[in-house]
Amino acid sequence: MPTSCCALNCTNRKDKGSRKKFFRIPAEPGRRAAWLRALKRSDFEQGKKNPTAAWTPRGHERVCSDHFISDEEMIADPPPESVETLRDPLPESVETLREQLTKVQEEKCKLEQFCESLQSEADNLREERDHLQEQIKKSSTSASNLTDAKCKLFTGIPTVALFMFVFRLVSDFIAPLKSMCQQDQILMTLMKLRLGLKNADLALRFSVSASTVSKVINRCIPILAVRLKFLIHWPSKETVKRNLPKKFRKKKILKL
């Protein structure tokens, strides 16, 4: 078993090349008691249940030379008077600890300043991102930024509220896409019917591919035809005759 020091908080071991000396605790009762008093060991430090019981050293335990005041007293069997000079290893000086604390505080201040600069930069980038997203949103065609004037121009429907009414009639039958929401699909289909725009033009306006435009229109037109059929009102034959212009009423043959 390697020789190590039994003093509290001491981790010295007897290694090759080490100049430290390790002394056996004397067996003579008087000197032994003096050594044990100086070591101030108890069962509590060793983790036993009874903290008041006296510590009993084993035969292999030693005390290293760090716990003696002078080298002159470090002989093979230290005299009894040197026992009272046993001490724990000295802690670091207060000045050293203060210097270390100052360095830690300086590093902390630098880190806090660096974090503040990073936070400020992140806030600026976030504002710039939001501004760019707002510009893209305004410049692109979408149902989210639709106005009454745009709605009438693009679809022929006079107001956005009426457009939303039409959308609610067909929304349950139109599946959303990853690249387009349901409202944009209806808007694009109505723009195709109203303005006759090319698929490439619609693809640029809605930031999708031309194949997506074709797919959406081919799917939405049949749904609109079925769901909005009840909105188409055909007047009766008598109503048509009654409201014909005078020029057409004079003709004897009228095919309706």
From TrEMBL:
THAP-type domain sequence ranges: 1-83
GO MF terms, alphabetically ordered: DNA binding; zinc ion binding
SUPFAM superfamilies: Glucocorticoid receptor-like (DNA-binding domain)
Coiled coil: 115-142
Transmembrane segments: none
Highest rank taxon of the organism: Eukaryota
Keyword terms of this UniProt record: Coiled coil, DNA-binding, Metal-binding, Zinc, Zinc-finger
InterPro entries recorded: THAP_Znf (IPR006612), Transposase_HTH_dom (IPR027805)
KW Transmembrane (keyword) present: no
Listed name of the protein: Uncharacterized protein LOC118422542 isoform X2
Upper lineage: Eukaryota, Metazoa, Chordata, Cephalochordata, Leptocardii
This protein's encoding gene: LOC118422542
